[in-house]
């Protein structure tokens, strides 16, 4: 099964580039930028990666991003992730980035996007991995702040395919971002959002009805509402499921109780993703391997999940056909 998974061509649809920041690269960049980090060794960092909930993780995730200052830092971060894609037979990836995490610290939007896009272009040329970008708004900040980010993105519009919504879900419903999503769609960005990870099914409804999202990031809690499940199936929307993220953040208590198989049985279009691989104990292939073992998934289940990853990508139809 491991070999089958490793050889399976796949796409990754839910990945935060800041969450791919491996401790070894973090030390290297901190050193060259002469920034102190509150850890003395990789082992110390790994020990700190023990989370009780989403917020626990987010606190450390934003802190780690502080060492990213220069275009080269964003380039190295992104290229290093794309090399891992190539090694795992991930042929295409849809990368989320959080501009506000960086612009809040005085790093310019241009520095962030130039570093990331140059790495994406080089990786496509050198190692054949295609990618597109999803600019994610931080939902713990105001809608006004998201509007500022939207405005900053306009000169780089041709480099960005979609907008997303991430960070602390509880207490920050999708409806808070109604206007900025509407404006983003008017600029040509495709809307997606994290919903139903820690938040209730009602937040998934809002993301669909109010933000008009085309794909649901996580979406686990849709299972609490039968009419919502029916609606998602009817609309043929995919869920980007992240098994190791779910157990790391206690969204699911044990992989053996993960609802992935149930989702497939209900006709929901699930995909497998790593979310923040440097923090949650595994890249995409490890997610496939662990969930296969826990739920005893068949080869045809795995094939379906990989097919879904291409079918529900945000690539245009012509490009999608090259992978299907
Ligand atoms: N949920 C919300 N925000 C995030 C996540 C996540 O899983 N990863 C990075 N930012
Ligand atoms: Zn995520």
From TrEMBL:
Positions with a binding annotation for Zn(2+): 14, 16, 194, 275
CDD domains: ADA
GO molecular function: adenine deaminase activity; zinc ion binding
UniProt cross-references to InterPro entries, sorted A to Z: A_deaminase_dom, ADE, Ado/ade_deaminase, Metal_Hydrolase
This protein's record includes keyword Metal-binding: yes
GO cellular component terms given for this protein: cytosol
Segments crossing the lipid bilayer: none
Cofactor: Zn(2+)
Adenosine deaminase domain span: 9-324
Active site: 197
Record-listed substrate binding positions: 276
Class of this enzyme: hydrolase
A Pfam family that the UniProt record links to this protein: A_deaminase
Catalytic activity: adenine + H2O + H(+) = hypoxanthine + NH4(+)
Important for catalytic activity, annotated site positions: 218
Role summary: Catalyzes the hydrolytic deamination of adenine to hypoxanthine. Plays an important role in the purine salvage pathway and in nitrogen catabolism.
Listed name of the protein: Adenine deaminase
């Amino acid at each position: 099964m491991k070999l089958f998974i490793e050889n399976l061509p796949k796409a990754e649809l839910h990945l935060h580039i800041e969450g791919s920041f491996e401790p070894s690269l973090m030390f290297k960049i901190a050193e060259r930028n002469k920034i102190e980090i509150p850890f003395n060794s990789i082992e110390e960092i790994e020990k700190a990666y023990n989370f009780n909930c989403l917020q626990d993780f987010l606190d450390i995730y934003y802190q780690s991003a502080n060492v990213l200052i220069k275009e080269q830092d964003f380039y190295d971060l992104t290229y290093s992730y794309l090399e891992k894609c190539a090694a795992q037979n991930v042929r295409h990836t849809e990368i989320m980035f959080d501009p506000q995490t960086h612009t809040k610290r005085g790093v310019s939007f241009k520095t962030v996007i130039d570093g990331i896009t140059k790495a994406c272009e080089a990786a496509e040329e050198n190692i054949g991995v295609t990618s597109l970008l999803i600019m994610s708004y931080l939902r713990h900040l105001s809608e006004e702040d998201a509007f500022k980010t939207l405005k900053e993105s306009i000169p780089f519009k041709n480099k960005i395919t979609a907008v997303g919504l991430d960070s602390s879900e509880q207490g920050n419903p999708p409806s808070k971002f109604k206007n900025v999503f509407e404006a983003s769609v008017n600029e040509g960005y495709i809307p997606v959002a994290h919903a139903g990870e820690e938040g209730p099914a009602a937040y998934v409804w809002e993301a669909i009805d109010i933000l008009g999202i085309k794909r649901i990031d996580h979406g686990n809690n849709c299972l609490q509402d039968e009419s919502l499940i029916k609606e998602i199936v009817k609309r043929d929307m995919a869920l980007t499921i992240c098994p190791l993220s779910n157990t790391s953040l206690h969204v699911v208590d044990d992989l053996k109780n993960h609802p992935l198989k149930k989702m497939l049985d209900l006709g929901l279009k699930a995909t497998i993703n790593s979310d923040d691989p440097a923090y949650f104990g595994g890249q995409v292939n490890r997610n496939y391997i662990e969930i296969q073992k826990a739920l005893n998934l068949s080869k045809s289940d795995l094939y379906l999940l990989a097919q879904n990853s291409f079918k529900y990508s945000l690539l245009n139809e012509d490009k999608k056909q090259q992978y299907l």
